[in-house]
Amino acid sequence: MNHWIIAPVILPALLAPLIAFVMRHDIVVARAASAIGTLALLAISIGLTVLAAKGETHVYYLGNWPAPFGIVLVLDRLSALMVLLTAILAVIVLLHAMITEWDNRGRHFHALFQFQLMGICGAFLTGDAFNLFVFFEVLLIASYGLMVHSGGKTRLQAGLQYVVMNLVGSTLFLFALGTLYAATGTLNIADLVVKVQESSADDSGLIRVAAMLLLIVFGIKAALVPLHFWLPATYANAPAPVAALFAIMTKVGAYAIIRIHGMAFGPDNPATDTLIGDWLFPLALLTIALGAVGVLGARRVGPLLSYAVVGSMGTLLLAVSVFDPYATTTALYYLIHSTFSAAALFLLADLIVARRGNDWLGLQPATMHNGLFAALFFVAAIGMVGMPPLSGFLGKLMILDALSAPEVIGWAWTAILVASLLSILGFARAGSILFWKSTSASMNTADVSNTAAAQDHRSAPIPAVGFDVAPAMLAVALLVALAATAGPVTSYLEATSAQIYESSGYVDAVLNGASEEAR
Amino acid sequence: MELLVASAVGALTAGGVYLILRLRAFAVILGLALLSYAVNVFLFSTGRLAVNKPPVLDGYTVTDFAAYTDPLPQALVLTAIVISFGMTAVLVMFALGAYLEVGDDKIDMQAPDQPDQGATARDARDPEHEQIKFRFEPKERDV
């Protein structure tokens, strides 16, 4: 048993209370501890990815209980990739939060941040459905705190509806797990794969109900229409670094769909047949359409980016919904891309909004360093909408290629291409209002609005450009790097999705691994 | 007994959903509590309903497992109770914070694209709301 597998959970779990109780009065010490912890997490996750890239599925038996009875953590290519993605994003977001002093505008930012990382890494690593629920709760309760970090009227209101939405989601999750346990008698994901395959026709009704309930729960997390409505209000009103970190939270939902539905409730399964794909495909189309319309109609920067996130989740879930290895490869590539492009845009928007004083897309005189921000926004927006030469274009191209089967091509290509066009228009409009027209605007029409973003920056002086664009630039640079290294990344992802759909390897490693090790 | 448990879960869920749809802080908190009770009873029953059977094995040489009930759902219920209890506490704090800040216990956003017209304008549009509402007056020592 390799004990490093549990390190991404243990490290933030130990660090967070230490920061909360010992370092709460000293922001410098808390920053140092948080930064060191996050960098250590990055190092560990790189190590785990190298380990997982060899193709073996590593299993960690908590308390050394044998598999279907105890809780297991499973490290395969997919979970290693997701943990690595989390760690990279966390480093960028933490840098931004520290440079722009966001962490100092409320209390316990770093402790909550580490708890959030613990929950996300745990959700990616766990091999047990109930444990997944527990880690969901850990990451949610930390996200509630982060969401209302630094307070403010609109933010608290948005935070409250976010909490209520997710509490209802958690209750549904428990109903789903109960149904699943009643039908199969297990909650271990590997055991579930076996039991669902072997289930009798009598149980298939219950299994289908459980699979659909789980799809609803993960759909809430992944902002699948019609369960997306918490997202725009939440992301638009969350503190900018938190919104950037939340870019990975929607991916937790997508990951859970790939992991649980892809492995246990896929189309090759007699109990569920094509049920999940039949629902996911049209809903993903709607998600894409709604995201594009939202981008086009947004009058503030926050909702603009939130709807861009909704649209990208739609594209991602559309590729997931056909449940075949090549489509999943492309979905994973797009997942990495959309995480970084959403983070880059939210961080950039924070810098721009801080200089403009509010986040309305209205005419206002140009701020300092207009050109630099215009250029960065241009590049990040190109990445988000999927124009060449950045990774968004490659990702969408591969998804289109994967969705070229005659029964899906019409809907999928129309939705993705038309939505991309609308998003381009929306971002072009936003960019030209923010940067281009502002150069000729002389009047001061800045209305004092009560949005959360406006409250944050009302008294803040306009900071000079220095290190504060570095994290956003880093995120944009990662998009360039992802496009440049598309070959090696895709070959890793191909192996990843092959591993997901060859579920016998996963099942063997989890259920028979302990006995082999004992020999 | 199945009918009793099933109708209890159903009634609790229906009540919970109704209260959550009221979209007022207190009703929603009660509704979520009812919903979590419903899910706890539901989880408990997923191990099949059995009367007078212990979940803990008596020694390690048991041969007749039919004399025992499934312990796993009971462990799940304990976890779920702890989590939902903690979450309710968090929710109460959130609702209180939002109420004190906004002066309104509605759990809903204004249209995110509309500039805020202030709490007073909103109250004027909603006479029913005006009747229920009371102002939070901070005491001297709180200030």
Relevant terms:
A: 519 residues; 73% helix; B: 143 residues; mainly alpha; Helix Hairpins; elongated
Describe the global form of chain B: elongated
Tally of domains of chain B: 1
Strand content of chain B: under 5%
| Rounded radius of gyration of chain A (Å) | 22 Å
Distance between the termini of chain B: 56 Å
CATH architecture of chain B: Orthogonal Bundle
The average pLDDT of chain B is 78
**Mean pLDDT score of chain A:** 88
What's the β-strand tally of chain B?
A: 0
Largest interface: A-B, 42 and 38 residues
From the structure provided, what is the oligomeric state, counting identical versus distinct chains? Answer: heterodimer
Descriptive report:
The complex is a heterodimer of chains A (519) and B (143). Chain A has 519 residues and is mainly α. Chain A has one domain (3-445, 458-518). Chain A has 21 helices and two strands. A two-stranded antiparallel ribbon of chain A has the order 1-2. The mean pLDDT of chain A is 88. Chain B is built from five helices and no strands. The longest helix of chain B has 31 residues, at 72-102. At the A-B interface, helix 5, helix 6 and helix 9 of A face helix 2 and helix 3 of B.
Short description:
With 519 residues, chain A is mostly helical.
Fold topology:
The complex is a heterodimer of chains A (519) and B (143).
Chain A: H1 7-21, H2 27-53, E1 58-61, E2 72-75, H3 77-99, H4 109-125, H5 129-147, H6 153-184, H7 189-198, H8 204-221, H9 230-237, H10 240-245, H11 247-264, H12 275-297, H13 301-321, H14 325-356, H15 370-385, H16 391-402, H17 406-436, H18 452-457, H19 470-484, H20 486-501, H21 503-518
Antiparallel strand pairs in A: 1-2
Helix pairs in contact in A: 1-2, 1-4, 2-3, 2-4, 3-4, 3-14, 3-19, 4-5, 5-6, 6-8, 6-9, 7-21, 8-11, 9-13, 11-13, 11-14, 12-13, 12-17, 13-14, 13-17, 14-15, 14-16, 14-19, 14-20, 15-17, 15-19
Chain B: H1 2-20, H2 25-45, H3 72-102, H4 118-125, H5 127-132
Helix pairs in contact in B: 1-2, 2-3
